[in-house]
Design a protein that fits this description.
Chain B: Keywords: Signal. The complex is a heterodimer of chains A (about 220) and B (about 260). With about 220 residues, chain A is mostly helical. Helix content of chain A is about 80%, strand content about 0%. Chain B is globular, with a radius of gyration of 19 Å. Classes of the chains: A mainly alpha (about 220), B alpha/beta (about 260).
Chain lengths: ~220, ~260
């Protein structure tokens, strides 16, 4: 107890920050892939697929991430599966992110104006061609701001992974604070690090929007 | 529903799952000896039992007890990072072999895990600003008492319904100390070591122990039904209480000796 903030403490916080970044990347890549499948399943022509994916989304969205993490780590161990904290946190975050991104992206796909769907169909494009060439390029533009907004949230939500023994940025701050008792200094540093992670994401989103917004025509239905 | 109650619910559900599953049990002591490694669940954010030194190496009374145990048994030691709430799930699900983490012996916990005999005790008090005139429980009426959430101090104070106490629960000891240092609370319920720490942080607000709260026995926790490991741990504790090593560790971090009735 006591003592002063030194380079070792900062290194420890830096290590925690790296884990936060790593966990966020896993969550976003894993969640992005699964989420894309969910988004497509939500607008599938098959009713059973639509219902199954809707149930998944409701189930995950109605459960706190903390509980998903807890069940992923301790629950799987209880039925005999050995999972490391990284695997459990990665998998839980993937499931969680997928449910939200899937729903965000479904909305974006469906908000592409109806005439675009009809025109694509009128050109005798197959369902895959319609999606890839006409609908998705427009949906991505709409999806950029909410997706990035959600990504920023996920970076911060990774702090919940401390419940499975994961020492990410927030938990490493807690550990340092409990040996120094200097909360204001330590939490200020942590806030700055989180900001340094999230702000570039927002900047990137703005640039992306500007670039893709160029040449955008007015697609309001006639 | 707060995060902690949600976690509690999840833990309870998990407990049911575990109880209903038949354990694929080899003997834990054999497993540990074969692996030449013992995995100990210790919260490294509860000073002065588990914390980090200035070079970010684990230190504290529980840390040294764990190190002594591993050394005596010729095992490699691995600390399983945990928070207060996940100490017990860690051993229930085989993530860790034993818990050494200021685990107070309570009847609720004894339903889920087994305890060894005590290796230390934890004296906790209600401490207040030195200038405050607090002699007994009625003097505390209407004053906020800060505690670390989910600890045995929290439970003990919360159960004193007839005393009309106001309890402010914080995430951990460091936050509780901050609350006391910054004037959010004028009383805290915690160990004597932490109470003294407040004055060190802010000489304008010196706290002292006012009313003894309770003395808890601290024991090593392990999964139910591991009798051989339990016997070996109990033997080790008896030996190291007798030769004074556990007392020396306790004194080094807590500034006081283990109670006389435990040392004789």
């Amino acid at each position: 107890m006591g003592g002063h903030l030194n380079i070792n403490h900062l290194m420890f916080l830096g290590q925690g920050a790296l884990w936060t970044i790593g966990l966020s990347v896993i969550a976003l890549i894993g969640g992005g892939i699964v989420g894309f499948v969910i988004a497509l399943a939500r607008i599938s022509p098959l009713k059973s697929v639509r219902i199954a994916s809707a149930v998944y989304v409701q189930l995950i969205q109605g459960t706190p991430l903390l509980v998903i993490l807890f069940l992923g780590y301790f629950g799987l161990a209880a039925i005999g599966l050995k999972v490391s904290p990284l695997a459990a946190a990665g998998a839980s975050l993937t499931l969680y992110v997928a449910a939200y991104l899937g729903e965000i992206w479904r909305g974006c796909i469906q908000s592409v104006p109806k005439p675009q769907w009809e025109a694509a169909e009128g050109l005798a494009l197959s369902r895959t061609q319609r999606m890839l060439k006409v609908i998705l390029p427009q949906a991505i533009r709409i999806a950029t701001p909410p997706t990035v907004g959600f990504m920023v949230q996920i970076v911060k939500n990774t702090s919940l992974a401390s419940v499975v023994g994961f020492v990410e940025l927030m938990r490493s701050g807690q550990i340092v604070n409990n040996s120094l008792f200097e909360p204001f200094a330590i939490y200020a540093i942590i806030a700055v690090i989180y900001f340094a992670m999230c702000y570039p994401l927002s900047l990137f989103s703005q640039r992306l929007e500007r670039r893709m917004g160029r040449g955008r025509s007015n697609l309001a239905p006639a | 529903m707060t995060n902690k109650t949600l976690l509690g619910t999840a833990a309870a559900l998990l407990g049911l799952v575990i109880l209903s599953a038949t354990p694929a049990s080899a003997d834990l002591l054999d497993d540990v000896m074969k692996a030449k490694k013992i995995r100990i669940s210790t919260d490294l954010a509860i000073p002065p039992s588990g914390m980090m030194d200035s070079s970010m190496k684990p230190t504290g009374s529980d840390v040294e007890v764990a190190q002594l145990l591993a050394k005596d048994w010729g095992l490699e030691l691995e600390f399983i990072q945990t928070t207060g709430a996940t100490r017990i799930p860690n051993v229930l699900t085989g993530k860790a072999d034993i818990i050494i983490s200021t685990l107070s012996v309570t009847p609720e916990r004894a339903k889920v895990i087994d305890f060894t005999k005590r290796y230390a005790t934890l004296q906790s008090d209600v401490g207040c600003l030195k200038s405050m005139n607090v002699k007994d429980w009625p003097d505390l009426k209407g004053k906020s008492i800060g505690v670390s959430r989910g600890t045995t101090q929290d439970t003990t104070l919360s159960n004193m319904k007839d005393k009309e106490l106001t309890i402010a629960r914080y995430d951990d000891d460091a936050t509780e100390v901050t609350a006391a240092v910054s004037g959010q609370v004028d009383c805290v319920g915690t160990s004597a070591t932490i109470i003294n720490q407040i004055g060190v942080k802010n000489p304008a607000r010196i706290f002292e122990s006012k009313i003894p709260l309770a003395t808890f026995d601290l024991a090593i926790g392990l999964k139910k039904g591991e009798q051989r490991l339990m016997d070996k741990l109990n033997g080790w504790i008896t030996e190291n209480v007798k030769n004074g090593k556990l007392n020396a560790i306790y004194k080094k971090f807590h500034g006081v000796e283990l109670p006389p009735d435990m040392r004789s």
